[in-house]
Write a structure and sequence with these properties.
By secondary structure, the protein is mostly helical. Among the domains are: about 260 residues, Orthogonal Bundle (Ammonium transporter fold), CATH 1.10.3430.10; about 35 residues, no CATH class. Helices cover about 55% and strands about 5% of the residues. It is built from 15 helices and two strands. A two-stranded antiparallel sheet has the order 1-2. A hairpin with a 2-residue loop joins strand 1 and strand 2. The longest helix is centred in the first third of the chain and has 41 residues.
């Protein structure tokens, strides 16, 4: 009996709802008009537009006389919409890059030991706030203060202050001088959109050393570092490449092609962060237990590989804002090419890193596959706009990682990051390297010699036989030298 009453009540509610919907679509009754007055023609009832074909007409064009815009008013509306699309695209891709901070936090924390997860996560969390504050105070001004007009955002030309020096009759820009605290004449929509996009790029560079020096530095030192890299280190180099500085003018001043080219930040972002992390790791030294007495490295596995894998997926997703967003224009259709190149680079890096570990050590290593994907993304960041699809791959991630662990025993990098610093530099080879091949070999050979025997010459290069009865070390050193030359 109770179920019957409940069912009846539900049916009455549904019937009342249907009646209300039908009543709102019916035309309300009009009051009777006087017989003497002429009845006006009834206005057609409004109709929905589910396909969107009739939404947006000439009436939506801003004009002095509604519905009758002049040619100039139409052109103004078109230009305004183009700039609005570009600014919206820049902001959305900036939001994606900001979300990469979560990916870095998960990846770095997953690769550390369980006892240090709170410290590592706190650094990744606070570098966002510290870096943003420092960049707002003076970092953006030093980097973009002399950029000039922003063509994709309306040609705003308020960023026109660049400190330059004159050498050989040429001007060399060193740093910008406008935009401190985003105050004064830089209170502009285009400047603010550019600030958000460049700030998250800076934050990406600033968070890389938190993984390279994980588990080994005090939070007070990290706090000072956060302000230093966001206010001085990163803005200066970024100004030289992206802000109208001297590196970007090498082509104009000395006829060196297009000068220093870095489309989306392989060097400006990832190499600055990588070299900073390498320098810090070499100063701090390795973690306890990383190396044996004979100098051979020991792996220190992370405490949570699924967390690191999730962080890698978040980073790969954020890279679709990192690379395509560097066009600063949603109206630039080349963003499709950039996105596909970015996707293929991440896939090739992960596949070749996994295959190398599988063939070399008998089973695939998920941590190396994760770092291989990140290395592929880093390597494609600079040339992603013009590189050929068949060149978007790299299979040397873990090989270089293990080699650098042996050549630089003082540098203990979290996870497989010891090989990523080299990949951050390889983007320049995709754009064309002017360094001769034999010069690179000679440089690396001398570097290896300096690492052997406290600066002594390489034992294999001496005329007398190598010291010591154990020839395994000499044979292993010979193999490493051959591998080093083969990698080039």
């Amino acid at each position: 009996m109770k179920r019957t009453w409940k069912t009846l009540a539900v049916m009455l509610v549904l019937a009342a709802t249907v009646a209300a919907v039908k009543a709102q679509d019916q035309k309300p009754a009009q009051p009777a008009a006087p017989a003497a007055a002429a009845a006006p023609a009834p206005a057609p009832p409004p109709k929905p537009d589910p396909s969107g074909t009739t939404t947006g007409t000439i009436a939506d064009v801003p004009a002095k006389e509604a519905g009758k815009p002049t040619l100039v008013e139409v052109a103004d509306a078109v230009g305004h919409n183009r700039v609005a699309i570009n600014i919206m695209w820049t902001l959305l891709t900036g939001f994606l890059v900001m979300f990469m901070q979560a990916g870095f936090a998960l990846a770095e924390t997953g690769f550390t030991r369980a006892k240090n997860v709170a410290h590592t996560m706190m650094m990744n969390f606070m570098i966002y706030a510290i870096g943003m504050t420092g960049y707002w105070i003076m970092g953006f001004a030093l980097q973009m203060g002399g950029l000039g007009p922003i063509s994709t955002m309306g040609g705003t030309g308020v960023l026109d202050g660049e400190f330059t020096i004159s050498l050989f009759g040429k001007d060399f820009g060193l740093f910008g001088t406008k935009g401190f605290f985003l105050a004064g004449s830089t209170y502009d929509v285009g400047v603010f959109a550019l600030f958000l996009f460049q700030m998250v790029f800076m934050d990406t560079a600033a968070t890389i050393p938190t993984g390279a020096m994980a588990e080994r530095w005090k939070f007070s030192s990290f706090f000072i570092y956060g302000f230093f890299i966001s206010m001085i280190t990163y803005p200066l180099f970024a100004n030289w490449v992206w802000g109208g500085g001297w590196l970007s003018q090498l082509g104009k001043n000395f006829g060196l092609g297009h000068g220093y080219v870095d489309f989306a930040g392989s060097s400006v972002v990832h190499m600055v962060g990588g070299v900073t992390g390498l320098a810090g790791a070499m100063v701090l030294g390795p973690r306890l237990g990383k190396y044996n007495k004979d100098g051979t490295p020991n792996p220190i596995p992370g405490h949570n590989i699924p967390m690191a894998a999730l962080g890698c997926f978040i980073l790969a997703f954020g890279w679709f804002g990192f690379n395509p967003g560097s066009t600063l224009a949603g109206s630039d259709l080349r963003i499709a090419v950039v996105a596909v190149n970015t996707m293929l680079a991440s896939a090739s890096g992960a596949i070749f890193a996994m295959l190398y570990m599988w063939l070399r050590y008998g089973k695939p290593d998920p941590s190396m596959a994760i770092n291989g994907m990140l290395a592929g993304l880093v390597a494609i960041t600079a040339p992603c706009l013009r590189v050929e699809l068949l060149g978007v791959c790299d299979r040397r991630v873990r090989r270089r990682a293990r080699l650098l662990e042996r050549l630089l025993p003082g540098a203990d990098h979290e996870g497989g990051r010891s090989g990523r610093r080299d990949l951050r530099a390889r983007h320049l080879r995709c754009l064309g390297s002017a360094e001769p091949r034999d010069l690179r070999r000679r440089h690396l050979r001398r570097r290896l010699q300096r690492r052997c025997g406290n600066g002594a010459r390489h034992p294999l290069r001496r005329r007398e036989p190598a010291r010591g009865p154990d020839h395994r070390a000499a044979h292993e050193l010979r193999l490493h030298l051959r591998r080093l030359l083969a990698l080039l």
